Amino acid sequence: MMLIPQQSSENQKLSFTFPHGITLSIKREDQLHPTISGNKFRKLKYNLIAARQQGCNTLLTFGGAYSNHIAAVAAAGSEHGFKTIGMIRGEEIADKIQDNPTLKLAQAQGMQLHFVSRTDYRRKANSDFIEHLKQQFGEFYLIPEGGTNALAVQGCEEILTEQDKQDFDYICCAVGTGGTIAGMINASSKQQKILGFPALKGDFLAEEIKQWTTRTNWDLCLDYHFGGYAKTTPELLEFIQDFQTKTNIEIEPIYTGKMLFGILDLIERGYFPANSRILAIHTGGLQGNKGFNNI
Ligand SMILES: Cc1ncc(COP(=O)(O)O)c(C=O)c1O
Ligand 1 in contact with 179 (CB < 6 A)? Predict the structure, then answer.
């Protein structure tokens, strides 16, 4: 894998210089908040305000056993005085909470965990299923799996500062449900290009993103999913190790590792024109590393 060049630090971003005058800066959204890190903080902000305005003191959401979103909702609930309910995919996980750092921490922060079969989990957006959950748990504010809705996209519009809109030609981020990139697309200036690196296999994400934006200055780089969601290869893991050693920036294999591998690969392949100024968003997710190392 290619060498990571010397880093320099300015405007709280770390920058790396490459041949042909190309620069890569990393925006540390992962450092926004100790437990509600990166894009999760942005996605939850307006949802928590809306829940409070609606007089709702319980948040209910869905996620997998190692979900960054579940971890963030539990932390946000505990910090802001909401009861939280986590609907977790897979009944078989119910007796493995103690082996799972994400769920253990979520529970310690007061989240009530309920384990649902994979069949029921697929009904997570059906109104009759949600109604059934309301009968079971009482009134709640629903936050969808992955946290993406219109208010989450609004929150992600705040990731880019006015300075970022002038200082960079390309903005890169990892894509799961598409809410984070959609917010940044909406906020970007028209000469910028937003590049998304899906962590999942398949080409359905472009349609998801189009639900949240009418702008067209974006593209998805579909070749860096490494086999699909939460899948890795020895090459990816070696890259992550190498990157962390050389930069002192912790990343993880589900989202940010794949994005950074993709960006460096595209630089090497000559995708970016000379003098391109690239900004990569570090969207956090580092809590998942604890669980990942246990798998
Ligand atoms: C660390 C991290 N980065 C990026 C993403 C992708 O965000 P989105 O689902 O808004 O596309 C997620 C979660 O979904 C995440 O946990």
Answer: yes
The number of folded domains in the chain is 2
- The closest residue, in CA terms, to atom 12 on ligand 1 is 176
- Supply the residue whose CA is at minimum distance from atom 4 of ligand 1: 174
Question: Is there an atom of ligand 1 within 6 Å of 177 CB?
Answer: yes
Rg (CA), the chain: 19
Label the pairing between strands 13-17 and 23-27: antiparallel
Q: Which residue has the higher pLDDT, 269 or 14?
A: 269
Report the percent of the chain where pLDDT is more than 70: 95
Q: In what order do the strands lie in the sheet with 170-175?
A: 7-10, 13-17, 23-27, 277-281, 170-175, 193-198, 218-220
Report strand pairing: 7-10 vs 83-89.
unpaired
Please give the residue range of the domain that contains residue 159.
11-34+150-294
Which of the listed residues 147, 164, 198 is the one where a domain comes to its end? 147
Alpha helices in 170-255 (DSSP H): 179-187, 205-210, 234-247
* 6 in any annotated domain: no
128 Cβ neighbours under 8 A, 6+ residues apart: none
Confidence of residue 295 (pLDDT cuts 50, 70, 90): very low
Task: Using DSSP, state whether 178 is helix, strand or coil.
Answer: coil
- In a mutational test of the pocket of ligand 1, which residue from 30, 158, 180, 224 has the highest number of ligand atoms less than 8 Å from its CB? 180
What confidence tens digit (pLDDT) does each residue in 259-276 have?
A: 999 999 999 999 999 999
Provide CB contacts within 8 A for 270, sequence distance 6+.
Answer: none
Single out the residue in 83, 112, 147 at which a domain terminates.
147
